[in-house]
Amino acid sequence: MAYNFKQEMNKPERLAGGHRMCAGCGGPVAVRGVLRALNPEDKAVIGCATGCLEVSTFMYPYTAWKDSFIHNAFENAGATVSGVEAAYKAMKRKGKINDDYKFIAFGGDGGTYDIGFQSLSGAMERGHDMVYVCYDNGAYMNTGIQRSSATPRFADTTTTPAGSVSTGKTQYRKDLSQVIGGHHIPYVAQTTFIKNFKDLHEKSEKAIYKKGSAFLNVLAPCPRGWRYPSEDLMKMCSLAVETCYWPLYEIEDGIWKLSYMPKEKLPIEEFLKPQGRFKHLFKKGNEHLIKEFQEEVDRRWNDLLVRCGEK
Fold first, then answer.
1. Which of 130, 166, 230, 259 has the highest local Cβ count within 10 Å?
2. Count of beta carbons in the 10 Å neighbourhood of residue 225
3. Are 220 and 21 in contact (CB under 8 A)?
4. Predicted confidence (pLDDT) per residue in 76-104, tens digit
5. Is the Cβ–Cβ distance between 298 and 245 less than 8 Å?
6. Has residue 2 got a pLDDT over 90?
7. Is the pLDDT of residue 311 over 80?
8. Rounded to an integer, what distance in angstroms lies between the CA atom of residue 110 and that of residue 203?
9. Closest CA to 40 of 61, 66, 17
10. What is the H or E stretch that residue 48 is in?
């Protein structure tokens, strides 16, 4: 079925308003976009790792989630939701459950790239019929903007402060989408919020309704950690895509496919300049750091083009 923006936006919300996520945060936008891909009549069980999303949407005894919701520890969203999915299948075989459910886990990059990677990898390898969604804001934002393995190189964080003796984080960003692609599961996709949310919607729908394990990596900018005006969320996502810092692609049944090719690839400065966490890169004498950043983006982009058969 062709994507109909108005029709999808008119679906009932499954994440209620009134939560305490920051203005301009990509987290709730990611959640609403993914859950909107569910058919309205379908039921879902949602798991969520500790993080900004969990602490702001589930304040006991109140919750913003309209589906069954499980908060688990930082490190085990993958294990929890895969366990619930396994129990559901066992009970359904015994005739104790007749309803159909979808199983979706959400975690930030701290609970996905780092602390929760072991349980995520195990769930994907075992092939549970579930979707794991990472809302990637590139740091441990909930506890004070500490670096994670998703943090880009040279970013200024509270644990990698830029100053007279430091240029920010010294390590390269982990490419988790490709790491999960190495698990050879039915569906892996990288997406974010651009234009009319078509890319996010179509990939979420594929992930939810494809049999077996699926993984979505959604770039979800953080205005506090990235230091951009809260109203510029969509602008930041667009710049990430147009500079090829965050390419849009999918791996479906082992086939790599590029989802979007910029008409004119923008220089990485366009993405870095609006963010306060990179302001030190634009000081005189640091031109070589931007050059290194650009070279890394270009290398990863060219590698992806080859994998997708575009080059």
1. 130
2. 27
3. no
4. 999 999 999 999 999 999 999 999 999 99
5. no
6. no
7. no
8. 23
9. 66
10. strand 43-48
Nearest to 15 by CA among 73, 54, 72, 41: 54
Name the residue with tokens 């590698």.
303
Compute CA 170 distance to the chain's CA centroid, rounded to the nearest angstrom: 23
237-248 pLDDT, tens digit each: 999 999 999 999
Please count the other Cβ atoms lying within 10 Å of the Cβ belonging to residue 285: 6
State phi, psi for 79 to the nearest 5 degrees: -65, -40
Examine the pLDDT at 50 and tell me if it is beyond 80. yes
Residues 6+ apart with CB under 8 A from 272: 278, 281, 282, 290, 293
Say if CB 15 and CB 32 are below 8 A apart: yes
Most distant pair of Cα atoms in the chain: their distance: 69
CB–CB of 100/77 below 8 Å?
no
The pTM of the full predicted model, rounded to 2 decimals, is 0.97
In the beta sheet, which residues pair with residue 255? 252
Amino acid residing at 213 = S
Residue 179 has pLDDT above 80, yes or no: yes
Q: Which two tokens stand for residue 253?
A: 């049944």
Peptide bond into 61 cis (omega under 30): yes
Q: Which residue has the tokens 């004498």?
A: 285
Q: Which is it for the CA torsion 65, 70, 75, 76, positive or negative?
A: negative
Structure tokens at 165: 């003796």
Task: Tell me what the mean pLDDT of segment 284-289 comes to.
Answer: 97
H helices of 23-157, where?
27-35, 52-57, 77-93, 109, 117-126
DSSP letter, residue 114: I
At 263 the three-state DSSP class reads coil
Q: How confident is the model at residue 253 (pLDDT cuts 50, 70, 90)?
A: very high
pLDDT digits (tens, 9 = 90+) for 197-206: 999 999 999 9
What is the torsional sign of CA 133, 1, 305, 237? negative
What radius of gyration, in Å, describes the C-alpha atoms of the chain?
Answer: 19
Q: Residue 117 pLDDT > 80, yes or no?
A: yes
